[in-house]
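Changelog note: in this version the structure field was regenerated for every chain. One regenerated record is shown below for reference.
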Amino acid sequence: MSIKIPLSKIEEGIKLALQKCDEHLASAEILASKSALSNAVVSLEFGIEEFGRAVALIEKHKAVSEDIETKLFTDHDYKYNNACTSLPSGLKTIYESSFNPAVFDPNVFHTGKETISPRTRLDATYVNYDEKTREWKVGIRADKDKIQEIINEIKQSKATLTW
């Protein structure tokens, strides 16, 4: 399903999405500097979605197409996937444990990793209960340097976008 948006309005949408992306990235940087890493990830992920929205709109603008898929406004994965077309794949990981699950008990040691996704954003935002571990989960694990690396990469990628 799609909607029609005039090319001039698509160009306006690109600029607005990139502006909103900048706002979310600025928030992420401030929150990371205050060690509020889960909250920084939430802002970072919103920034990634807006970057993905801009990338999708740029492709339509270059194709001189006014048909915009409605999933651009409703589907988080669609926007993430569009963003990832312009970003290195290694930047999807925001935390990776140094404990090998083949050696350390995952019930005792955090052996996993956190990756950018709509699910991660929700986990970073809300308090959840893990029936398996019988523990409350507040936020996610995130690496401050990795957050900044992703922010920097998005800024560099934004600078190379043309339409």
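Spot check on this record: Residues 7-33 form the longest helix (27 residues). The CA atoms of residues 126 and 147 lie 19 Å apart.
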